[in-house]
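This part of the workshop introduces the protein records we will be handling. A record pairs a protein's sequence with a compact description of its fold. Comparing a sequence with its tokens is the quickest way to learn the format. The record below serves as our worked example for the rest of this section:
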Amino acid sequence: MSELRPAEPTPLAKTRELTEAGHRSALLKAGALQNAILNSANFSIIATDELGVIQIFNVGAEHMLGYQAEEVINRVSPSDLHDPMEVTARAVALSTELDTPIAPGFEALAFKASRGIEDIYELTYIRKDGSRFPAVVSITALRDDAAGLIGYLLIGTDNSARKRVEMQLNEAVAAAEKANLAKSDFLSSMSHELRTPLNAILGFAQLVESGLPALTPAQKRSIDQILKAGWYLLELINEILDLALIESGKLSLSVEPVSLQEVLLECRSMVESQARQRSIGMAFPRLPAQSYVKADRTRLKQVLINLLFNAIKYNQPSGHVSVECAEPTPGTLRISVRDTGAGLTPEQVSQLFQPFNRLGQERGKEEGTGIGLVVTQRLVELMGGEIGVDSTKGVGSVFWVEMAMATAPGLSLEISAEPPPIQTLEGVEIQTVLYVEDNPANLELVEQIIARRTNLRLLGAADASLGIEFARVYKPRVILMDINLPGISGTEALKVLRGDPATAHIPIIALSANAVPRDIQRGMEAGFFNYITKPIKVSQLMDAIDAALVVSNLGQPDVSPQDIT
């Protein structure tokens, strides 16, 4: 009799059995993952119902906040665990942003999440013991296909470590900035202090050189060395002072439309004699009259002269320097200074704008400080421009500066459909207005404005020292004063004029491109009668001049324009 054996399972049954085993394994694995997440101590997980009442409070939340789950579940809202002032501030910010009233509390925390937008924010958590710590919290709305919104999920992490690092970094940056400012202030102060003894050294050395009896050859060589070293030291002091002013943020610039043609003509006249001494040929472009760039006139001239002097100084004998202008992109003008010198290697180009780095030239015959190009670069950047160099060893270098193009000042006026009529006042004496301005285009513009009034004439001065002398000699009724002038500033000139009884009564109106409220406030506090910003509005300027004329004619120097009705 044969032995009975159990029937072999069919292939379908085997497949079903394997599938069920896989489902059980997947469920077990998913359950393990869920338990691991809920029991993780590294981050808090808080889930609420649709009303914002806590339903799940995991182990991480217990460790982080100090509550047991049973103390908060079905009892409190997550907003009760946050700083109430921050929750209120969040509600106010949302109300302003969305123009919708939002009550402080959990509604403010969950507002964006309820609209399907996951929200991450920084708030302060409050532990059970009352201690506080910064946290980053992500909040997501939980939805069910049938029931819709069923609650919210908040996942939070302790942000204390990152905040400590940020605070330490901020403190380090603040300390570095303070040290840098202190260094710059020290350099600035020392630069000024060094000028006094240096002035005596150079002054008496020049007297000895030109005095009687004539110097012996040995004495002449000694005096030449003293003067050579003295002038070099003065150049070093000036460049250190410029760099210190820039880095301390105390350098004041007046960025306005500047005629590039005029600046280049002035630069050419200053460098041509040195070029002739070295047999260096020079070529300058012929620019249209309306070639204007946005820059500080004095500092742009300083930049171009420095580049031209370097191109001459480091050129080969009987070499050539050419200045070229092009428009690489619409609205930008590039001024290039090309030389036929020894050129630079890529490594030297990378070190070019480092302070006191002369790229090995300190062993050569040409003197230099290694600061000039650094100052040049900082000035260009402060004026909103860009500087660069293209160089080939053995061929030469091209230093270029790119500045934003500008419209001639006359085109920036407040223009009405009909120009204001020329006013003629019979029987009234011609009254002089003095304008102290180093930019010829601005001077011409104001001259055209003043020409519309037959009772006024304009007298121009290109710097503050000349303006002070003109004021003392011609006794103008009103003075218009630019702030950023070569030599002494307009504010310093104001103090000189106020301290002189002969000019103290003359109303002085600031006319400047320094247009931020702080600059205007400083100008008025310094004692200017009024402060007009560029671009000029004709009506505003003429109203200011008329008000100043009233004060000048009445002999009331202390009256402000607001007092005149």
Remarks:
- The first strand starts at residue 44 and ends at 49.
- Residues 174-247 form a domain with the Helix Hairpins fold (CATH 1.10.287.130).
